[in-house]
């Protein structure tokens, strides 16, 4: 499995419609990527009279992909702040 570790930052503001505040800007920063390695279950497809093998992540839905092709995203930290920079 490929692991992607991200930091998330929410910028929150209040307005008459949402007096409790709501995020209007969400940013994600990729901190680290740990690759899963080469595909262990390549798929054979026909292309222009030829047969070629491609990694399963390019052809199969996520639940049918091999362990090396799956991607797991982990949120390392979630920060909430207001537009003036103060932490909420």
TrEMBL record:
It comes from the Bacteria. This is Uncharacterized protein.
